[in-house]
C-alpha cells in the first residue's frame, strides 16, 4: 500500500499549508492586539490615579492669583501690528 502523491495533490496540500499558515499569523496578530489593549487600559487607569493624587496634593487652580505672567524678552505686545 503505497501512498504516492500526485502533482495536483501536492499543489493542493501546499495551498492548504499556506492557507493554514496565513490564518495562524492573523490569529496571532489578533491575540497580540487584544493583549496590548488590555495592558493599555491598565496603564491609563494608573495614569488617571496618579493625576488625581497630584491634584489632591496641590489644590492650586490655574489663574487663581489674578496676575498675568510676565512675557518673555523675545515676545512682542499683542497689538504690535497696530502701532504702525
Main β-sheet, in a few words? none
Number of strands: 0
Distance between the termini: 102 Å
User: H/E element string?
Assistant: H
Q: What level of helicity do the residues show?
A: 55-70%
Rg, Å, rounded = 32 Å
Strand residue percentage:
under 5%
Descriptive notes:
By secondary structure, the chain is mostly helical. The protein has one helix at residues 7-57. The longest helix has 51 residues, at 7-57.
Topology overview:
Blueprint: H1 7-57
State the gist of this model:
This protein is mostly helical.
Q: What are its keywords?
A:
mainly alpha, 84 residues, elongated
Amino acid at each position: 500500500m503505497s501512498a504516492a502523491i500526485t502533482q495536483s495533490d501536492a499543489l493542493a496540500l501546499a495551498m492548504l499549508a499556506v492557507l493554514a499558515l496565513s490564518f495562524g499569523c492573523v490569529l496571532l496578530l489578533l491575540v497580540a492586539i487584544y493583549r496590548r489593549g488590555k495592558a493599555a487600559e491598565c496603564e491609563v487607569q494608573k495614569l488617571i490615579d496618579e493625576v488625581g493624587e497630584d491634584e489632591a496634593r496641590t489644590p492650586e487652580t490655574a489663574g487663581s492669583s489674578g496676575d498675568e505672567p510676565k512675557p518673555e524678552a523675545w515676545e512682542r505686545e499683542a497689538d504690535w501690528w497696530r502701532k504702525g
